[in-house]
Each structure stands twice: as structure tokens, then as C-alpha cells.
Amino acid sequence: MKGSSEIELILLASTKVGEKSLVLHCLSREYGRRSFICSIGKSYPMALFLPLNILRCTLHENGKSELWRVSSPQLSFPLNSLRSDIHKNTMSLFLSEVLYRSIREESSESELYDWCLRKILELNALQNDYSSFHLRFLLELCEVLGFKADLEGLSPFAGNHYEDIRALLSLDYSAFLLYPLNGRSRNEIAEILIKYLGYHLEIHLDIRSLRVLRELYA
Q1: What is the DSSP letter of 47?
Q2: Alpha helices in 103-172, H assignment, sequence order
Q3: Among 24, 60, 71, 163, which one is most buried in terms of CB atoms within 10 A?
Q4: Are 22 and 36 in contact (CB under 8 A)?
Q5: Strands 69-75, 32-39: parallel, antiparallel or unpaired by DSSP?
Q6: pTM as predicted
Q7: For 14-32, what is each residue's pLDDT tens digit?
């Protein structure tokens, strides 16, 4: 064992291992995208391990295993608004799956963690006009991952939404969230941005929660 230290993690997904353990698929400042194993018991409600939760844990490094252990998980931020609003909560599932499927294990792009943390807290704080937040998130994620989305690059994917995408790319954050889109257009643009992201990452992004988001914003 190399000892223990405190670490803050953004939880992207979790996998149950037996009855008393979870593998937590996370982002951290120190290690980028990495998975950790955590023992769970009756004192840890499963709500603690919802996607996009920001956890403060004790990290136990282990030179004999790549799967390090974390213990004593606690919420760094409560995210009450995000969890109590069905629209925000559904959007958080979508965003976490995008991050989980698009960021490679041990990937440590600079500023990725702090950007994700800021976006989670922004979504939690928004009181209204957040129905297009996930579209802005996807565009910014492209830039954080190293390929800024522009009209030339997006035009082959844009289809009937070329003019909407052209307009959205020209708007600042506040005006972007206020740009008028119906639910169908919002869903179709989300699919366009997912395809664009997958094209640049050279992977097929099958985002299953997009179906749930599509139903919510039909």
C-alpha cells in the first residue's frame, strides 16, 4: 500500500460487484478518468452514488492493483435542485452517460475536471430556461476535448437544422439558453452533436439515455 489521501471525484457511473461493493467510474483532477472500488453498507444510501454526484473520499493507493479503493464517501455539494427536478435529473443522466462513453480511461485532458464541476453546479443553480443546457454542454465538451465545434465542421451533420446550429454557435451563454427551440428540434440537434462528437473521437456513441431525454422533451 502507498498510503491514503483525500480526493474529490465526479461520479459518471457505477457497477455493482457482489453485495457489498461498487466500482465507481469517475473523473478526478489528479487522475482524470479512472475507476475505483468502494465498499458499501447500510450506512451508505444508494442516492449517494447517483451519476454526476461530486464525492469527497479517502483514496487508498495500491501498488499491486490498478483498481484502487476509496472509502468514506461524502457529498461535496448536495445538488438538491438537480435531484428534485425531473427534467434536470433526466438531463444529468444524459450528460453523465456522454462523459462516461466519450472520455477514455485514464484520460486526463487539462481543465476537464474543473469544467465538468462548473457545468454540474451551473445546471443545479439554474432556476429556469435550462431546456437547451445539454446542447451547450455538448458544444463546450467538444472544445474541452480539443476540437472546437464550428459551422464548417458541423454542417455535414446539420441536415435541416443548419440555420439553428449557425445561430446557436453565434450566441453567448445566456442568449443560447433562451434561443427558441421546440422539443423535437432540441432532440434532433442533440443527436447531431452526439454524432459530431463520436466522429471526432472515432467511436460510435450509443447514448441510451437520449431516448429518455427525447420522451421528456417530446
Answers
A1: G
A2: 112-125, 133-144, 151-158, 162-169
A3: 24
A4: no
A5: parallel
A6: 0.93
A7: 999 988 899 999 999 999 9
Locate 141 and state its grid cell.
465538451
Domains by residue range for the chain, with CATH:
3-75 (2.40.50.140), 80-216 (1.20.1440)
The whole-number pLDDT of residue 41 equals 77
Give the angle 175-167-183 at the CA atoms, nearest 5°. Answer: 75
| pLDDT at position 10 | 97
Grid cell, residue 204, equals 460510435
Burial 56-82 (b: 16+ CB within 10 A, else e): ebebbeeeeeeebbbeebeeeeebeeb
Tell me which residues of the chain have a pLDDT lower than 70: 1-2, 108-110, 218
Tell me the per-residue pLDDT of 169-203, one tens digit each, with 9 for 90 and over. Answer: 999 999 999 999 999 999 999 999 999 999 999 99
Locus of grid cell 425531473:
86
How many angstroms separate the CA atoms of 110 and 99, rounded? 15
Q: Which residues of 115-134 are buried (b: 16+ CB within 10 A; e: fewer)?
A: bbbebbeebbeeeeebbbbb
